[in-house]
Amino acid sequence: MRRMGVALAGLLAVFAAIVTAAPAFAHAGLVSMTPAVGSTVTVAPSQVVLTFDEPMQSLGSTVAVIDPAGHAVQTSEMAVQGTRIIVWLLPLHRPGTYHVNYRVLSGDGHVVTDTRTFRFAPSGQAAATPMSTAVPEVSPVHSDSATIGFWLTGVALVLLLLVGWGVARVRRVRTRG
């Protein structure tokens, strides 16, 4: 019985270590965007700047800025400067909501994918075309794969504890009988 208690204590220690290490499973997240997420700009921006909470890689990273008609408006130029990705835009002509679609590769090799928006309303049109889907400034966006892996590990440890407890109960009943 003493060995079983030591084994259970060891498994609980491993589980506690995994739970407290949860932030290590986090991936890069978007911290800010210029123009700001959900904002309305009256002067057409010449670039979109995405700022993440860790360095990005240029190889494997793509950003597409799509106008209200569904056309890409970014140039072929994109710069990765540490935690920032800069995408230059063609001149914007259409008022409305622009979607910034990104699939970027963080320094640790994890892919982060999301879409954010801003609205372009040339002077005089800002009041006439309110933004219907205002989005607050973003918090970091993380890949779900790490969260799923974390919970699967936790479930596996709990199942292991239950199996160990069941085996100990069966042995105890057999030794008594």
Provide structural commentary.
This protein has 177 residues and is an alpha+beta fold. The protein has two domains: 52 residues; 114 residues, Immunoglobulin-like, CATH 2.60.40. It contains two helices and eight strands. The protein has a four-stranded antiparallel sheet with strand order 1-3-6-5, with no helix packed on it. Strands 2-8-7-4 form a four-stranded mixed sheet, with no helix packed on it. Strand 7 and strand 8 form a beta hairpin. The longest helix has 33 residues. The radius of gyration is 25 Å and the shape is elongated. About 19% of the residues have low confidence.
Q: Based on the structure given, which CATH architecture of the largest domain is correct?
A: Sandwich
Largest sheet, described in full?
A: 4 strands, antiparallel
Radius of gyration: 25 Å
- Counted by DSSP, the helix tally is 2
Average pLDDT confidence is 77
Number of domains: 2
Kindly, what is the distance between the CA atoms of the first and last residues, rounded to a whole number of angstroms? 16 Å
Secondary structure blueprint with pairings:
Elements: H1 2-20, E1 30-34, E2 40-41, E3 47-52, E4 56-66, E5 74-81, E6 84-89, E7 96-106, E8 111-120, H2 144-176
Parallel strand pairs: 2-8
Antiparallel strand pairs: 1-3, 3-6, 4-7, 5-6, 7-8
Helix pairs in contact: 1-2
Quickly list its features.
177 residues, alpha+beta, Immunoglobulin-like, 2 domains, four-stranded mixed beta sheet, 2 helices, 8 strands, elongated
What's the short story on this structure?
This protein has helices at 2-20, 144-176; strands at 30-34, 40-41, 47-52, 56-66, 74-81, 84-89, 96-106, 111-120. It is of the alpha+beta class.
